[in-house]
Specification:
The protein is an alpha/beta fold. Helix content is 34%, strand content 22%. The chain contains 10 helices and 13 strands. A hairpin with a 4-residue loop joins strand 12 and strand 13. Helix 8 runs antiparallel to helix 9.
């Protein structure tokens, strides 16, 4: 089986029992989330292996996250635990149209303890792709050093690198994000970005210009209910989204990334990768929760019409 590695924070998520502003929500349902962990769950459900590199609190919520990740079959052998910093949490607000807002309690983050010297040189030895997300880069200042170490290890082994800017302006400013991302772009093979996010990050620069400046093999632009487009140096591939009723779109981007990377490592062509990725994104948007809706390979194939669904 192919194997991916990713690094990042995970949090206990509190999902609201009803829609509307948080101050009017009387109760919450506890779940587990975090962009990178969601991505790892996404590829694991698609029958690939995922190694999740992280540091969580050595507390009740940390135990919950650890057990949850293990339960999903994720390799947690590179997850550290610290007694000094509590595990991060966040509360979600969901509006009537399914759009979400997040309120984080993640500063300081346990990732403060995951310094560059604690990254094992052999961590990528058995890995086929390294996935970095901008959320990770936003959480602690030293995370860029850690990410660059992983990138260097990946490049030494010719392992492709995917990057999702996952811009979170609640965690840092656009200027800080741009400056840090600049250090990452020249090393990546796949850039998985949202359309608005691309415009915010590159301020009017064209896709072609960005692609040529940093020599990025594929720029994949996620466009919500409009589907997605992939740009290579010479071609452009568009694919419409699946028609669904969105309930909670948080996590659709992570699901898209997981399915795209899965299909990429599987050797599928770009059109097929887009079909699977749009399918995974759409499925997650129809289910409340950040990773609950991440499909198994069979569920995904049934949804996109490759396999027949037998209900009885
Ligand atoms: P996030 O970071 O909030 O998860 P994103 O901006 O990275 O989001 P989106 O473009 O919102 O990603 O969604 C990713 C993919 O999921 C889309 O490209 C599309 O394939 C699918 N998707 C999202 N919303 C819808 C929708 N309303 N209908 C159909 N497909 C959707």
């Amino acid at each position: 089986n192919k194997r991916i590695a990713t690094i990042g924070d995970a949090m206990v998520v509190f999902n609201p029992s009803k829609t509307g502003p948080l101050r009017f929500v009387p109760s919450f349902e506890r779940a587990v989330g975090g962009a990178e962990l969601n991505f790892a769950i996404g590829v694991t459900r698609l029958d690939m292996e995922a190694k999740w590199i992280s540091c969580i609190g050595d507390d009740e919520f940390g135990k919950l996250i650890y057990n949850f990740a293990r339960g999903e079959g994720i390799d947690v052998s590179h997850v550290l635990r610290t007694p000094h910093i509590p595990t991060s949490i966040y509360f979600k607000e969901i509006r009537e149209d399914g759009a979400g807002k997040s309120f984080y309690y993640r500063n300081p983050s346990p990732l403060l303890e995951l310094t560059e010297d604690r990254i094992d040189e052999s961590v990528l030895d058995d890995v086929d792709l390294l996935h970095i997300s901008g959320v990770y880069l936003a959480v602690c200042e030293h995370n860029i050093e850690v990410a660059l170490k992983l990138i260097t290890l990946a490049q030494a082994k010719n392992i492709p690198i995917s990057f999702d800017p996952n811009l979170r302006l609640k965690l840092w400013t656009i200027e800080d994000a741009r400056a840090v991302y600049e250090k990452v772009y020249p090393s990546i093979n796949l850039l998985l970005t949202g359309q608005d996010e691309f415009e915010l990050l590159f301020e009017g620069r064209t896709i072609k210009d960005v692609q040529e400046s940093y020599k990025i093999d594929e720029i994949i632009v996620k466009k919500g209910e409009q589907g997605a487009t992939v740009y290579t140096a010479t071609e452009q591939y568009d694919r419409e989204a699946f028609s669904i009723r969105a309930i909670d779109t948080v996590g659709a981007g992570d699901a898209f990334d997981a399915a795209y990377v899965y299909s990429y490592l599987n050797g599928d062509d770009i059109v097929e990768r887009l079909r699977l990725a749009n399918g995974a994104g759409a499925l997650v948007a129809t289910i409340k929760g950040d990773n609950e809706g991440l499909p198994s390979l069979q569920e995904l194939r049934q949804f996109i019409g490759d396999e027949k669904l037998i209900e009885r």
